């Protein structure tokens, strides 16, 4: 890269300042083999493809079990499993093998290109971003097919600033707010998953910092990442480092000062009281919400107990999860939403028929059996005061 103090400008997506050595995640370029197969070879290629999907699920499951952070990070990471569990991806790739005589790698790559074109034609920018999610998953399956080990951040040294062309939820899920100081990516946007996850982890991040950054940057070079302005300073001089260390200290002091007001009543200047509640998916989010002054849980999404698993949670497992939420939020109340599944949220263990418009069809409360009526909340979840 250019000399000391060179600078990149990107899109600031997660506020804060990070100062530390660069840890560059360099992706090996996958050259996908493409060749025709004979009809009698189709069964063997299909079997190879299915084994690769199974291996990919197992590796992602290992990441999930080793995750130290959950909450929104875990939710987004789990959502990637839906691509692996969705039979459409595998079925279309198998069709490319049997109907077009393609080897397994080529068949999967062709299906990826079809899906990318489909997503990139969508007008909604958030949905367009999901093309990259599918790409990360397919890359992992291709690596399994080709006997390659996927890249990861599990062994990243503490306190580094991760630099990459882009980052997948599976990679971000391997870090915590204490292990990585910041993120910088060449691509990405305000709606990308690395953006959402970085904010959830409270890790400063800048995306869309320009091409070739990961290739040009050496590991260990000091970086300053300003998640407020989008500045990425490479090999800053001592005076710049001192300036940003002071800004970082000022931000920490401001945060401590603001925490002094957490327990003040939430009310307008004219004395109108407002009840501050939080929406959560995981137990860890409940603790964070209370730390920042929430007075209860306005919505606990029960469907995340059902997703990304091969069976349905037992009644006892559900009761235990709800009791943990209620115990964590006590003495405040929690509103537990009835199971909202269907559409894009379908548990593997529950068979629902395909619907043209599932948002208006059989989903949510329409699939829920009323096992706990209002008078029996004490039996189901504990004292009535803890559930609203």
Word description of this protein:
- There is one protein chain.
- With 388 residues, the protein is of the alpha/beta class.
- It folds into 3 domains: 6-27 and 152-237, Glucose Oxidase, domain 1, CATH 3.50.30.10; 39-145, PtsI, HPr-binding domain (Enzyme I, Chain A, domain 2, Orthogonal Bundle), CATH 1.10.274; 278-386, no CATH class.
- It has helices spanning 42-66, 71-85, 87-100, 104-120, 125-145, 169-172, 193-201, 213-216, 238-259, 283-291, 315-329, 377-381, and strands at residues 6-9, 11-14, 17-25, 160-164, 180-185, 205-207, 222-226, 231-234, 278-280, 297-300, 334-336.
- The strands form 2 sheets. It has an 8-stranded mixed sheet with strand order 1-8-7-3-4-5-6-2. It has a 3-stranded parallel sheet with strand order 9-10-11, with helices on one face.
- The longest helix has 25 residues, at 42-66.
- The protein starts with 5 loop residues before the first strand and ends in a 7-residue tail after the last helix.
Please outline the helices and strands:
Blueprint: E1 6-9, E2 11-14, E3 17-25, H1 42-66, H2 71-85, H3 87-100, H4 104-120, H5 125-145, E4 160-164, H6 169-172, E5 180-185, H7 193-201, E6 205-207, H8 213-216, E7 222-226, E8 231-234, H9 238-259, E9 278-280, H10 283-291, E10 297-300, H11 315-329, E11 334-336, H12 377-381
Parallel strand pairs: 3-4, 4-5, 5-6, 9-10, 10-11
Antiparallel strand pairs: 1-8, 2-6, 3-7, 7-8
Helix pairs in contact: 1-2, 1-3, 1-5, 2-7, 3-4, 4-5, 10-11
């Amino acid at each position: 890269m250019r000399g000391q103090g060179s600078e990149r400008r990107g899109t600031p997506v997660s506020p804060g300042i990070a100062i530390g050595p660069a840890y560059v995640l360099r992706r090996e370029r996958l050259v996908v083999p493409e060749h025709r197969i004979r009809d009698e070879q189709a069964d063997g290629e299909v079997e190879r493809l299915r084994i690769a999907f199974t291996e990919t699920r197992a590796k992602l499951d290992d990441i999930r079990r080793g995750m130290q952070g959950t909450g929104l990070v875990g939710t987004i990471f789990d959502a990637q499993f839906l691509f692996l569990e969705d039979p459409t991806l595998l079925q279309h790739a198998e069709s490319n093998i049997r109907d077009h005589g393609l080897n397994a790698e080529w068949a999967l790559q062709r299906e990826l290109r079809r899906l990318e074109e489909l997503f990139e034609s969508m007008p909604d920018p958030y949905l367009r971003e999901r093309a990259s999610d599918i790409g990360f998953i397919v890359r992992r399956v291709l690596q399994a097919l080709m006997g390659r080990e996927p890249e990861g951040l599990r062994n990243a040294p503490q306190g580094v600033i991760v630099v990459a062309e882009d980052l997948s939820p599976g990679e971000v899920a391997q870090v915590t707010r204490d292990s990585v100081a910041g993120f910088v990516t060449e691509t990405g946007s305000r709606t990308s998953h690395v953006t959402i996850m970085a904010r959830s982890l409270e890790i400063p991040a800048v995306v869309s910092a320009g091409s070739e950054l990961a290739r040009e940057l050496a590991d260990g070079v000091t970086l300053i990442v300003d998640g407020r302005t989008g500045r990425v300073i490479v090999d800053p001089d001592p005076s710049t480092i001192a300036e940003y260390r002071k800004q970082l200290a000022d931000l920490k002091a401001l945060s401590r000062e603001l925490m002094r007001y957490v327990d003040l009543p939430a009310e307008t200047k004219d004395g109108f009281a407002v009840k501050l509640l939080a929406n959560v998916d995981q137990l860890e989010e409940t603790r964070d919400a209370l730390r920042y002054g929430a007075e209860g849980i306005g919505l606990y999404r029960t469907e995340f107990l059902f997703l990304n698993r091969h069976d349905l949670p037992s009644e006892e497992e559900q009761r235990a999860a709800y009791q943990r939420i209620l115990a964590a939020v006590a003495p405040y109340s929690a509103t537990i939403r009835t199971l909202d599944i269907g559409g894009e949220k379908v548990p593997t263990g529950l068979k629902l028929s395909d619907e043209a418009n599932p948002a208006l069809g059989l989903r949510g409360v329409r699939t829920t059996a009323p096992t706990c009526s209002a008078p029996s909340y004490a039996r189901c979840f504990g004292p009535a005061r803890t559930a609203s």
